[in-house]
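Fill in residues.
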């Protein structure tokens, strides 16, 4: 019974965090906990979300503002796969955030991977910091595969990754390497580009 209540609380909290990040995508400032909404009981009654709750919600919302080519394996699949490569820093938070959701008219499926070769059918791939030493080989293996690569490892976008989470005080933001995304035939919406902390429009600057 206690476990069921815990799972229910996780789902409710994830829904609130997801709504919070949606405000960001449409032009508001995202602050952990959404404490900038005074008098809003929805947020006031929720515990302050942690860093990876916010990042999990971002992963879901990226799927709403990126368009994948239908010619890629990921675009042809019957599900919308969000994948984590390497050690998972999210834990059950990502499961609860994605549970029962749909993107692009397809059910969202969470997959945890140990090899980049298994990521071909992923729409979104979060690359753990545990894979930093192998990043060059991972990105090479995914080249032109149509997979949106995301990470919070330092220098990720400078090394050819597409979206990198960054912390600005107590705010979770993200940087975009638009050249890498366009090379994979991905189309990022102008709304997403507007709220990015920075947008890199040329290629890799080195490994």
């Amino acid at each position: 019974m206690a476990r069921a209540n815990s799972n229910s609380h996780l789902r409710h909290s994830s829904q609130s965090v997801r709504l919070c990040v949606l405000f960001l995508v449409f032009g508001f400032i995202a602050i952990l906990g959404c404490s900038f909404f005074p008098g809003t009981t929805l947020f006031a009654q929720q515990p302050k979300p942690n860093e990876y709750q916010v990042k999990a919600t971002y992963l879901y919302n990226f799927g709403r503002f990126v368009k994948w080519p239908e010619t890629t394996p990921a675009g042809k699949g019957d599900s919308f796969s969000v994948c984590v490569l390497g050690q998972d820093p999210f834990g059950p938070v990502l499961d609860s955030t994605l549970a029962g959701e749909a993107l692009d008219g397809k059910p969202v499926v969470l997959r945890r991977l140990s090899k980049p070769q298994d990521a071909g059918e992923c729409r979104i791939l979060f690359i753990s910091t545990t894979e930093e030493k192998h990043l060059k080989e991972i990105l090479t293996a995914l080249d032109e595969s149509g997979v949106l690569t995301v990470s919070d490892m330092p220098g990720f976008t400078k090394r050819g990754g597409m979206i990198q989470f960054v912390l600005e005080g107590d705010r979770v933001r993200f940087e975009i390497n638009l050249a890498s995304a366009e090379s994979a035939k991905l189309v990022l919406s102008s709304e997403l580009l507007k709220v990015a902390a920075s947008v890199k429009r040329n290629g890799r600057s080195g490994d």
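The CA atoms of residues 87 and 128 lie 6 Å apart.
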